[in-house]
Structure prediction request, 797 residues.
Amino acid sequence: MKLTLRWLQEHLETTASLDEIVARLVMLGLEVESVVDRAKALAPFTVARVVSAEPHPDADRLRVCVVDIGRERVQVVCGAPNARAGMKGVFAPVGTTIPGTGLLLKKGVIRGVESNGMLVSEREMGLSDEHTGIIELPEDAPVGAPFAQVMGLDDPVLDVKVTPNRADCLGVRGIARDLAAAGLGTLKPLRTDPVPGEFKSPIGVHLAAMDERACPLFLGRYIRGVRNGPSPKWLQDRLRAIGLRPISALVDITNLLTFDLNRPLHVFDADKVDGDLVVREARKGERLLALNGKTYELEEGMTVIADSRGVESLGGVIGGEATGCTMETTNVFLEAALFDPVRTALTGRQLNLQTDARYRFERGLDPEFVRPGLEIATRLVLELCGGTPSEVYTAGAVPEWRRTIALRPDRVRTLAGAEVPEPETRRILATLGFGIGEAGTHLAVTPPPWRGDVEGEADLVEEVARVWGYDRIPAVPLVRETPLPKPALSPAQRRVGTVRRALAARGLVEAVTFSFMPAGQAALFGGGKPELAIANPISSDLDAMRPSILPNLLVAAQRNADRGIPNAALFEVGPQYEDDTPEGQREVAAGVRVGRTGPKHWADAGSPVDVFLAKADALAALAAAGAPVDNLQVTADPPAWYHPGRAGILRLGGKKLAVFGELHPAVLLKLDVKGPAVAFEVFLDALPPVKAKTRARPLLKMSPFQPVERDFAFVVDAQLPAENLLRAARGVDRNLVAEVRLFDVYHGKGLPEGKKSLAITVVLQPETATLTDEQIDAFSRKLVAQVAKATGGELRA
Prediction:
């Protein structure tokens, strides 16, 4: 939102300096992105009088001018057809950069005649596209005076960043209102008295049967006998200052009210309108040639304004070229209406069309200012273009907007920490336009119609606090429950970090992917539920919340492979979603390995990734998280996206803690991922709670005494999971057994049918004394007996 200082002062009676205004706007929540001092850039350009203009001796179209610049006279060679003796123009001295062309002006010789400077045109000054001649200034312009000052271009331009909720500040008056409430001046009164109509409008307006929110109110006024032409200089200067191109008086008036009072309008050439206007929904196949010269294919649901010929305007977005005003326009129909913010935004998005009107309508406008805006515009049209106005044609009514919010007087202190006296609270709200009444011990506050964003007590507190001044709120330290320092992270948060480090130590690279994915991919991993569909996705193919992290990791791994980086090993710790309830969101550490365990090497050819590698990753994550990995059971009932028979679930007492294994070939095929690929998912929310004093168990106990290793081979049933045997061995003496690991599995010759041999290494770590042979033998007998009891296995001869 751009405005100039003088423009602001037309609404705000103030003596505040520019710096004070900028500082206060920032504290009010209206960030000033830039302040452009145009006078500084135009300082070298001054008013000059052409003393003489003689024909160039060697060029028919050039003149040799002697120019009085106040302090001296200089010779300038000029090619402008309007250069003549006695006129006043704008002089650029040698060493000046011309704004419109970027040319650095140097002293030169043109066709043998010396030229010391330049008389410039509007295009060369960057003021307009006019280049038929040099700028002609009024006769009373003082010679030598700064050009910017004479032309009123010494007015600083402010660019204010307005947040989406503050639609009221998309007009200069809204910004002035905020500054007045902050004590930087007084808001000047605005003349909105009705302009009497002298006849009935020959053009009527009808609201077709549709959602009444689409256009609840439409006002129109016929003005006949207007004389359209260029708008006056003050209006053109104001529009140019904020980057708009003046077009004609009628169009410039509507642009002025859009930025001055936040009231978009549209003006039709009434002689081009066929019959009455109808506000209705667009029909399939309809098109509109808009004022920007582009033709748009309209869709059903868009709000349009049509006559008997067809669509003439897109409600709240842009007008049509067929009924646009030109310099020949003599009769106009002035429109002021309310359009639904949601429909306006959707229409603009569907057509990829952004306009100043759409920008304001989609944020919500003051429903009570439709009629005053029309009256102000009418008065300007009559003043600048003449004509005779009709009575106002009204279709619809102002929608109900009034609401009352209870404000507890001490709530400003308890919620914002600002000690604002109650009389000051009342003054601030009243200056901002809020109505204030009494409701027992509370204030009954009615927001003004231009503040649709104020919906509750907290919003009122924010209004008081920002106007009072956030910089005036004292910094108060938080009350400490104890003088002792508290840990920055909770045990559960520290556990997540530990899991990350453990997986990274195993060679996996952490990735961060979107929490959403294509619905087709989600369906492969148990997702695709309607309640997990995204209403407004950032991309059409990212339309579902992820039921698993794995699809995104797999796609990322294949993307790396496609770019020459095979054998990806990725993990991510984050949320995945089973349903749309808080309980359905789970914190998961998931990872994938694709391809081989490593690149080709003469000493280690590597091997394809397999289920055991995925299991080791899952166990490492569980161990880092403090889970009792020695007590886990493995079941062969993984989800459908895993390979049956090559995947499993790690459970604790029946509770699922992790899933691991090879991924199903059909899933990889649909994801276009080249296998083999294995994965794991560790459900951090399902792990036993972390105790504050829990420390990670070391892999090997630290002791000054020599550890002892013993190997055992047991003959067991071929269907027996090795984990059962390992668990039995670990349970013989947990204070003595430091580690149990499987190092050999054998089927075949020498074993009975239906049997296999499992060979394990048991590491014994004494803590009080070196083990004797008798103690080792006693432990061995106990271990054999325990394994036999738990698994039915026998020591292999």
